[in-house]
Structures are given as C-alpha cells and as structure tokens.
Design brief:
The complex is a heterodimer of chains A (about 240) and B (about 550). The mean pLDDT of chain A is about 90. In chain A, a hairpin with a 2-residue loop joins strand 9 and strand 10. By secondary structure, chain A is of the alpha/beta class. Chain A folds into two domains: about 140 residues, P-loop containing nucleotide triphosphate hydrolases (Rossmann fold, 3-Layer(aba) Sandwich), CATH 3.40.50.300; about 70 residues, no CATH class. The two termini of chain A are about 30 Å apart. Helix content of chain A is about 40%, strand content about 25%. In chain A, strands 6-7-8-3-9-10 form a six-stranded mixed sheet, with helices on both faces. Chain A has a four-stranded antiparallel sheet with strand order 2-1-4-5. With about 550 residues, chain B is mostly helical. Chain B contains 18 helices and two strands. Chain B has a two-stranded antiparallel ribbon with strand order 1-2. Chains A and B meet through helix 2 and helix 3 of A and helix 11 and helix 14 of B.
Chain lengths: ~240, ~550
C-alpha cells in the first residue's frame, strides 16, 4: 500500500533522508522511530506531499505521489506533529472546509463529523472558535479531520503529543480498529512503548538512513540483544550506527 | 536591558554573514527606497517654504502654520501606531508567557516592552520628520542648536504619544471585559486616524496658500490661529521648534522643558500603573476573544449561499478566507483606513479648482482623468500590498493543510487570485468611474480609463499573489507585515514599474487621439501602427504580469 524507493531529501547543508526504501502492506501498522533529527518528520512530510523529495519515489496505493499528487492525497489522512489550524474558524467550520477539499458529501459529513467529534469528546466544542481550544483539543480535531474522508492510508507524526491518557488509549484503539478495517497506518513516534504495543513492524532511522526494520524480535536479532525491550534495542542500534 | 537583549541579538544575527536569514540585501533595498522618499520629502518642503517666503507679510505665518499642522499629524499618527503597537507588545506577543515565568519584576517586563513598542511606533516618524526640519533649518538659516532642539522635541513627542497610549492600554486591559480588549483598542485607534484624515481634508489646507479665497485678512489670520491650544503637547513641540528657528532660546528651552517634564511624569505614572494593573490585565487578555456577532442568516439561508456559483473547493477557500478575515479584529483598521482613503480620494476630485486654471478646462479635465488611472492603480497597488501580498503567508503554520490536501498549488493560487481580484476590480472601477464623473470627462476617456483599469487590476493582483507565494513567511506573528519584507518591496517596485510602463505606453497615443478629436484632423498610417503597437504591448505586459508570477509562485510553493 505504501512504497518508498530510494527516497532522499537533501537540504543542501543537511542530508535529512538518504536513499530510504521500505514497503508497508495494507492493514499494517508501521512504526517509525529514531532520535531527534534522524529524518522521521522529513520522511513523513514527503509522504504527505508537503515537501518534495530530492530523489526517489513514493507510491501510495499504486499512485505515484509525484505524478498524481491530488489523487494520492485523496486517500491519505495526514496528522502532523504540531496542531496548527485556522484559529478563527470553529471546529465544525474547519471540518466542513476539509470535507469540501476532500469532496465528502454533505449528509455523510454531518453524520460522520458528529460521530467522530463525540468519539473524541469535542462535540460540545464544535461551534467554538479553534483559538479557544487547548493543545490537546486541537490535536484531537486534527485526527478527526484526517479521519473524516475515510482514508485508506493514515500518515501520523507523533500522534500522542499533547493528548491526555484517556485520549491516548482511545487513539490507540481507533488505530487498531482502522488497521482491522484494512487501513494502512504509518506512524512516527518517540514513545517506544506505544510503538511496541501498537505496531506490526517498526523501522529505526538514524541520520537519514534506515538501520533496521521488522517486528520487535526481528530488531532484537539485528541488534543482537536477545529478548530485550524495544528501548534497549533502539539504544543499541543507534549507538552502534 | 537584559530583557531587550533577545531582540537586539536576533536583529544582529540576521545581519551576520553566512546566516540563513541574511538581511543585508533587504536592508539595502529599504535604505534605497527610504532615501528616495526622504529626498523627495525634503525637496517638496524646501520648495514650499521658499514659496512661502515669497508671500509678503504672510510667509512666516504660513510656514509656522504648516509646521503646526505637520506636528499635529505626526502626533496623531504616533498615537494610532502606539496604541496598536503597545497592545501587541504588552499583551499579545508570543514570548510574553516565557517572560512572565521568569523571576523578573513586573515593572521591568513592562518597561522593556514599552521601550520596544515606543521604538517600533516612532522610528519612522522621527526619520521622516528630519527632512522637514532640515528644510526649515536651511530656509531660516538656523544653526546646529536648532537641529538638536528639534530632534529632542520630536523624541519627546514620540515618548509622550507612547506613554499616553500605554497608559490607555493598561487601564483598558484592566477595566474592559476580557476578550473585548483587542477589539476595543483597534477600533479606538482607527477612529482616531479616520477622524484626523477627514478633518485634515475638510479644513482644506490647500486654501492656506490661497489667501484670496478669504473674505478678509482678519478671517485669514483667524484660520491661522486655530489648533494652537497652550496645554496641548503638540503646541509645546511646535513652539520649541518655532522659537529655536528664531533664536529665541528662552522660550524654546521653556517649551522643551515642558515636553520633557511631561514625558518623565508620564513614564513615572506608567510605572505605577504597571505595578498595579499590568499583571491583572495580562491574565485577562489570555482569554480568547469573543465573537462580536452570531452567524448571519436570512430566512434560514446563510450568506455562504451567495458563493454557490463557485466550485466546491473554491467556495471552501472563499468562506474560510472571509470568515478568518472578519473575525480577526487586527484586520479591521486597514479596512476602515481604506474607506477613509476612498472618501478623501473622491472628495479631492470634487474640490479640484479646474475653473480657475489658465489652461482650457476640457483639456485639463482629460489630463487629470488620464493621470487618475495611474493614481487609482497606485492606490490599488498599496491595497494589494497590504491585503493580497500576504494572502499566502496568512495561511501561517496551518499551510500544511493546503500542502497535504488534494488540491494542486496552482489551483490554490488561482483561487486566492480570484478571491481578491473580484472585490479589487469592483473597488477600482468604482473609483475610476466616480472620479471621472466628478471630473466630467469625455466618453472616450471614460472608456479608456475603465478598460485600462480592467487589465491592470488582474496584473497587479497576480503580481501580489505570485510574489507573495515566492516570498512567503509562514512563521510571522503578523503576516500583514510581510509587505515590509524584501518580497513586499519587490512587489511594490514591480507593480509601480508596470503601472508606469502601461501609462507611458498609452500616454502618447491618447494625447494624439484626444488632440485629433479636438482639432478634427485624421491619423497617418504610421500613427495608427504606433497606436496598435502601444496598446497591444500594454495588453501583453498585463497578461505577462498575470501568468508569469502565478507560475513562479506555484513552483516555489511546491519546492518548499
């Protein structure tokens, strides 16, 4: 469902991502972990069509993101790490704006947005200006907006930042539920326990290069750490790189 | 001083060679444009003062009257700009929560912010008052002490305006209902400037240079004495400069001392007020602004229905843009100012003394009409610089939504273009038609003006959208300020250049056509060819200015 081939991003002074190649199957949850500045967000931003790669290709459900970005973006639900929104719109107005861009039909929009807003405990706030929302509420609204058009692929950068424990647990359940419905999820995170708990496979990136990928036991094999927890595996891989 | 260090260091870092945000080119461009304005202002004032000197008995009074009017205008502008700046520096800046978390006395926070605000709102007035004083100094052959006195007086005036504004803002923030603070001050500031602009126009200062229009010398002298109240700070500043010009140092220093003591008293009162109420006001200002009105609906239909003719994504953008604009109270001042500008613009045409001109009136009316096309286009450029150039930057950090949405950058930019093109076309055509009707021009000139503006508006709007996309600033606290960036300046230069080129291309043929109609002679083939070439080239320039910047803008946004 997601295919990255020799993906490279060179900012001129920094080589942020270096010939990254990976595949994610339909219905799979793929965790992307790495230290600060490893190239996680750059990769995610390239996959969301926000920045263009210097070289390499990204294919989403068979659509080349460079050749037909509009078609590819229609099936992606993108959640950035920082919840920047149009602060002067109300939550509902923002969802309607997103629905118009993704061609979600009006009756479905109202049914779906009510369902999602209630699920994310934002229904009471739907007609309030986003400026008045807390950081966590904005993050939840972004997740609602990303789910509104029933995407086939979810690309999520740090999904749990700013969320309270209840929301963290809810988001985890939602992501698992989506994967069960064959939605592909690519998630970058610093929370290793989340990656361990949620992801089918995990990729470790450092200095723009993919060090290892696979299940936690695959990573243990690669790091020669026996049956250690992900945290130890991760630290070993990064230290030895 | 410690609290001001981050700002000074940031400015210094921007100028260091090798840094990513090197601002030397920007600074150079600013200096160049500033110098041009500066020299222009000096030459105008110098010539006016020399002319005044030639008016027997009244020359001196006229020069002093002009000085007094200049200082009142400067003071009102300073008050307006200080209110907006102080509000932003004291209550809305993003770094305030950090400052409040530091172990620093509240008065120190207040004075560091006040000082920054006073500098930001005053430097441009100080810079542009210098050519005025220089021209006075040269005409009256004043010594070096005059310049020192004038500079000190103007600095005192800036500090007084800033201190009065900060006191008003401090009191307002503590007393007004939370959430209404920004709106109140923005409206207050705007009313002040609109009032000044309209009053200045209605008193018709141009009559002061035409003493014949007064019934008697007594009436004329009376009008000269207006607005010289002894308790107004502007009077002290005017008198400081006036007496310094005449080497009457006792009175000059007395008035300067009045100004300075007023400044120190105001600073002292501000310090006391800050200790008492700044912290409380800051806490209240953290409350989100309330919406001034509930959504407008007419018989169950929302205003959004009026946009049904647009495609779905275009309508979504239009609604988002309109809502965000009208809910942001910081946008309103410019809107009010534009309304005032239009009123003054049209009023000026209604009072043009065409019947007193020595040249044949029909000719003059049409010359004015032609120049009016250029003038209206320059006004359009200024409006585009303020509203259209920041249209891409205004997406701010939420630009990721557009980047990740299934909408191409090209479509995004064209939607932005049409959102601004339609209202600006209507506004410009109203300006042109109304001013032409006031001038009573020939149908040919009316047709030509309407047509020229029809092609210039899309060119200027596309230039603004395209260059705005080439030089966006998604991280700015106030995207409207992006007009003062390198990209904004480049837009202004290119836009003015384009307008000037189109006007020059049309001027020759229009003159020939107009004279041929007046004197009834026919055109030669060469002349017809020249007309066709000129008008076609002007049209080509406009079409090029629409397509090329939009293309560049889309390419640049994709590369980000």
């Amino acid at each position: 469902m997601i295919e990255l081939k020799n993906l490279t991003k060179d900012y001129g002074t920094t080589l942020a991502v270096n010939r990254l190649s990976l595949d994610v199957a339909a219905g799979e949850i793929y965790g992307f972990i790495g230290p600060n500045g490893a190239g996680k967000t750059t990769t995610i931003r390239m996959m969301g069509g926000i920045i263009e790669p210097t070289a390499g290709s990204i294919t989403i459900a068979g659509i080349d993101l460079r050749k037909d970005p509009v078609a590819a973006k229609k099936i992606i639900g993108f959640v950035p790490d920082r919840p920047f929104l149009y602060e002067k719109l109300t939550g509902m107005e923002f969802l309607k704006f997103i629905a118009d861009l993704y061609s979600v039909e009006a009756p479905y929009l109202f049914r779906r947005s009510e369902e999602l807003l209630k699920q994310f405990a934002l229904w009471e706030w739907a007609d309030e200006i986003i400026e008045a929302y807390s950081h966590g509420m904005k993050q939840r609204l972004i997740i609602v907006a990303a789910l509104l058009h029933d995407p086939k692929v979810m690309i999520i950068d740090e999904p749990m930042v700013g969320l309270d424990p209840e929301a963290v647990s809810m988001v985890k359940d939602i992501l698992k539920g989506l994967a069960a419905q064959n939605v592909t999820i690519f998630v970058s995170t610093h929370t290793l326990s989340l990656a361990e708990d949620l992801c089918d496979r995990i990729g470790v990136i450092h200095k723009g290069t993919l060090l290892a990928q696979g299940s936690v036991s695959d990573l243990n094999l690669a790091a020669k750490t026996g049956e250690a927890r992900l945290e130890e595996v991760f630290l070993t891989l990064v230290r030895e790189a | 001083m410690t609290l001001l260090r981050p700002r000074l260091l940031s400015a210094g870092n921007g100028l260091k060679p090798g840094t990513r945000n090197n601002r030397w080119t920007q600074l150079f461009l600013f200096l160049l444009i500033g110098l041009a304005f500066w020299i222009g202002a000096f030459l105008i004032f110098y010539r006016v003062l020399i002319y005044f000197q030639s008016v027997q008995n009244f020359g001196d009074i006229l020069a002093m009257k002009l000085l007094s009017m200049m200082i009142i205008t400067f003071f009102t502008l300073l008050l307006f700009s200080s209110i907006i700046n102080t509000l932003s520096h004291l209550y809305l800046s993003r770094d305030l929560p950090l400052l409040y978390s530091l172990p620093v006395d509240i008065r120190d926070i207040f004075f560091s912010r006040w000082f920054s605000s006073a500098f930001d709102s005053s430097w441009i007035v100080v810079a542009f008052s210098l050519p005025v004083f220089l021209s006075y100094g040269l005409v009256y052959q004043a010594g070096a002490a005059f310049y020192l006195a004038a500079l000190t007086a103007i600095v005192c005036m800036c500090l007084m305006a800033s201190a009065v504004s900060s006191l008003l803002v401090l009191l307002g923030a503590a007393l007004l209902p939370a959430g209404k603070i920004r709106t109140f001050f923005v409206i207050l500031g705007v009313l002040l400037v609109v009032l000044l602009v309209i009053v200045l126009r209605m008193i018709r200062p141009e009559q002061l240079v035409n003493p014949d229009s007064f019934a008697s010398a007594v009436l004329y002298l009376n009008s000269m004495q207006a607005l010289s109240l002894p308790y107004l700070p502007t009077t002290w500043v005017t008198d400081t400069v006036r007496f310094a010009l005449k080497n009457n140092w006792t009175y000059s220093i007395f008035n300067l001392a009045l100004s300075a003591s007023c400044v120190f008293s105001m600073i002292f009162i501000n310090g006391m007020a800050a200790s008492a109420i700044y912290s409380r006001g800051f806490s209240r200002a953290q409350t989100t602004a309330n919406r001034l009105s509930s959504p407008v609906k007419f018989r169950g239909h929302s205003w959004e229905g009026l946009l049904n003719f647009l495609s779905r994504s275009a309508k979504a953008f239009a609604i988002k843009e309109i809502r965000s604009f009208f809910r942001d109270s910081t946008q309103w001042p410019q809107l009010f100012l534009i309304c005032a500008l239009i009123v003054v613009y049209l009023y000026n045409f209604s009072v043009l003394p065409l019947n007193r001109a020595p040249i044949k009136t029909v000719y003059l009316q049409n010359v004015f009409s032609f120049l009016n096309v250029g003038l209206a286009a320059f006004v359009l450029s200024a409006i585009a610089a303020r509203f259209v150039f920041p249209a891409v930057s205004i997406e701010g950090e939420a630009f990721w939504i557009i980047q990740s949405a299934p909408v191409s950058m090209k479509t995004f930019l064209w939607i932005k273009f049409f959102l601004y093109y339609i209202p600006l076309l209507i506004l410009s055509e109203i300006l042109i038609v109304a001013s032409n009707l006031l001038l009573g021009v020939t149908p040919f000139m009316m047709f030509l003006s309407v047509l020229t503006i029809f092609f210039l508006v899309p060119a200027v709007v596309a230039l603004a959208v395209g260059l705005g996309a080439c030089y966006p600033d998604f991280k700015s606290e106030n995207p409207a300020l992006s007009v003062t960036s390198f990209g904004g300046m480049l837009f202004m230069l290119l836009s003015f250049g384009l307008i000037a080129l189109v006007i020059i291309l049309e001027a020759g043929p229009v003159y020939k056509i107009f004279m041929a109609r007046m004197h009834g002679y026919a055109f030669s083939w060469i002349q017809i060819l020249w007309f066709v070439f000129s008008f076609t080239f002007a049209l080509f320039l406009c079409v090029f200015a629409v397509l090329y910047p939009m293309r560049l803008g889309a390419i640049n946004l994709l590369k980000r």
